Amino acid sequence: MEVPGSSKKMIATQAEMVEARVPLGYRDQCAHLLIPLNKCRQSEFYLPWKCENERHTYEKCEYELVMERMLQMQKIREEQKQKQQQKQGIPLIPNTANA
User: How does it sit in the membrane (predicted)?
Assistant: First the structure.
């Protein structure tokens, strides 16, 4: 399944996420990594030193998604800034060399 505006694809299906009881807020492109992480957590009684590899891969995936969204937002802001500068035309007060 293709997600608009993202380079990552949805790997986990809706049925898999429902079966694994993944909360709605966590059903993103990294949900396929959250399902085995939660299974490991339950089998290891949520001990913090267990399932470190699964947790690291899931958190890395989430970090990459956040960074991707930040870059997209930065591009949108730059485009809006350029549009505003084009609308203003010639400034009434010229910019000085040191300002």
Answer: Peripheral membrane protein
Q: Where does the pLDDT of residue 85 fall: very low under 50, low under 70, confident under 90, or very high at 90 and above?
A: confident
Q: Distance (Å, rounded) from C-alpha 26 to C-alpha 23?
A: 6
Give pTM, 2 decimals: 0.82
User: What 3 state SS string does the chain have?
Assistant: CCCCCCCCCCCCCHHHHHHCCCCHHHCCCCHHHHHHHHHHHHHCCCCCCCCHHHHHHHHHHHHHHHHHHHHHHHHHHHHHHHHHHHHHCCCCCCCCCCC
> Each residue of 19-73: pLDDT tens digit?
999 999 999 999 999 999 999 999 999 999 999 999 999 999 999 999 999 999 9
The tokens describing 34, both together, are 């959250």
The Cβ of residue 58 has, within 10 Å, a number of other Cβ atoms equal to 21
